[in-house]
Amino acid sequence: MKIFIDRVELIAGLLLGAIAVLTFAAVMLRWLFNYGLPDSFDLSRLMLGTAMFWGIAVAGFHNRHIQVDGFWELAPAWGKRLIDIFATAVTLAFMGLFAWMLESKVTSVFASNEQTFDLRLPVWPFHAVAALGIALASLLLVLRLIRLITGKPLTGGSEA
Q1: Rounded distance between C-alpha atoms, residue 99 and residue 77, angstroms
Q2: pTM for this structure?
């Protein structure tokens, strides 16, 4: 399980690194040689969305997303557990809906043969990998919910 989660984190991190390298290269080529790197904006935009969605998967599992937990802090231990179960179930419902809607978006983009501006690269693979990130978020939230219900410890992250 830990290896799987580490791989998801690695992919999100590599995508962010690729965005940084692509942006740096595009800026330097434009500044030094007055040459625009073809599709650098489109590719960085598509990779950023993908990196965000893969990051959401890990943040949801580790419970490292933005939250307000004043009420949670005041609750007894059993109340904290119930709040965590409820919050994870609601988040899972929305992530599941989000994954379903993204699947229809991937199908739509594939059918329309949408491409990048300069290199005419198909856009649907980027959308598919991003949708996979949200599907992974749903899967990891299911695992988190099961662990919360059964009382098994979660791997890493805070419980709040």
Answers
A1: 32
A2: 0.83
